[in-house]
Amino acid sequence: MTGAPATTAARPEIAGAGRVVVKVGSSSLTTLPGGLDVERLTALVDVLAAVRASGREVVLVSSGAIAAGLAPLGIDGRPRDLATAQAAASVGQLRLVQTYADAFARHGITVGQVLLTADDLTRRSHYRNAHRTVERLLSLGVLPIVNENDTVATEEIRFGDNDRLAALVAHVAQAGALVLLSDVDGVYDGDPRTGPAQLVDTVREPGDLAAVSLGSASRNGVGTGGMATKVEAAFIAAHAGVPVVVTSTPQAADALAGNRVGTLFGAMGRRPSARQFWLRYASRPRGRLILDDGAVTAVRERHASLLAAGITGIAGDFLADDPVELVGPDGAVVARGLVAYDAREMPGLLGRKTGDLPPEHRREVVHRDEMVLVGRLR
Predict the structure, then answer these.
(1) 252 is in an annotated binding site
(2) Is 162 within any annotated ligand binding site?
(3) Is 216 annotated as a binding residue?
(4) Segments forming the whole domain that contains residue 294
(5) Hey, how many other C-beta atoms are within 10 angstroms of the C-beta on 114?
(6) Taking a C-beta distance cutoff of 8 angstroms, is the pair 26, 229 a contact?
(7) 233 and 174 in one domain?
(8) Which of 137, 161, 316, 332 has the highest count of CB atoms within 10 angstroms of its CB?
(9) Is residue 191 a known part of a binding site?
(10) Which pLDDT score is estimated for 221?
(11) What is the reported pLDDT for 264?
């Protein structure tokens, strides 16, 4: 990974990051009637090229494919049906990436396209492949441009918004910082459109936003995200040890320089292993194991492996090595882990002590090394 020089910036954790993921939203790049706004896209490229010229590495997560395809297809407004959205993405993705390629080429920078669906990161082998691809592109001096593969993604395998995708990519790429850009200056303690509101400068722990109402994700205009999705993504990255700035696209240069713009989410934990991060944030559980109170205590407080004796029920049709949720008697999710048995093997094991089981079934149902505790981010 390329290193960055020492800095005296107000936010040295951002300015000093040798590898940074930058996410830009559709509203910053496109307009409903006119498709791509080349002038605004070029302005962002100029900023990122300057970051590259300073010796830092950049991964760009860019929305805008669907919006870029609307005008050429003569479609007014964001499509409501999946097939039309996929058609618009098919047309718009070409235009979007070609425009990026031309703009970066003026700075002597080659770009590479990385299209992902949620399925590519929820499957552990695909997650590792994504890491290797991004790492190799960067080692070759290429600037990766990542987007959700809207041309094939179905509702069941969508990320839902590129903010969450950017948080996952920040871990996949082993980035030192994440910058989420949109048309909003940062996180406010109220809605600045309806009354007085103060910009939140720094978030060091989830409690800092306990009294802040963020609303829900928006699907107005050309984008699908909202401040709630940005904060959720910021917490995912921050809990994984990656500091985040949420700000507007015109402030991108200041944000990347470590100047005090937007809202900083400081790193809230050590960077987890790829397996731990994948289990908690990227895996798709294939079933559930219902635990009794004793097993919940053993897993949560003693970080013990899950044994058959503490399981009272199962749900789902999972296979051995699939990710599953570990759920307490009250229905609350306690942990996620990789189960050692197929669902069809489990009924005969429930509630039985290890010594009473046949030798082939005496291993842990979920080993502690294959488990991660799950709690609310906010």
Answers:
(1) no
(2) yes
(3) no
(4) 285-373
(5) 19
(6) no
(7) yes
(8) 161
(9) no
(10) 43
(11) 97
Please name the amino acid found at residue 119.
D
63 labeled part of a ligand binding site? yes
229 is in an annotated binding site: yes
Q: Is 183 annotated as a binding residue?
A: yes
Binding site annotation covers 353?
no
| Residue 302: inside a domain | yes
Q: Which residue among 251, 276, 301 closes a domain?
A: 276
pLDDT at 157: 36
- Residue 181 phi, psi dihedral angles, 5° rounding: -110, 140
pTM equals: 0.82
What CATH number is associated with residue 353?
Answer: 2.30.130.10
Residue 71 is predicted with a pLDDT of: 85
Mean pLDDT (10-residue bins), the chain, 378 residues: 61 96 91 80 98 98 88 82 86 92 98 83 77 95 88 50 87 94 89 81 90 58 64 92 96 97 92 80 89 96 95 95 94 94 95 92 93 72
All residues at 6 or more sequence positions from 43 whose CB lies less than 8 Å from its CB, including other chains: 250
Q: Is there a domain that residue 6 lies in?
A: no
Annotation-wise, does 228 bind a ligand? yes
**Beta strand residue intervals within 166-230, DSSP E:** 177-182, 202-203
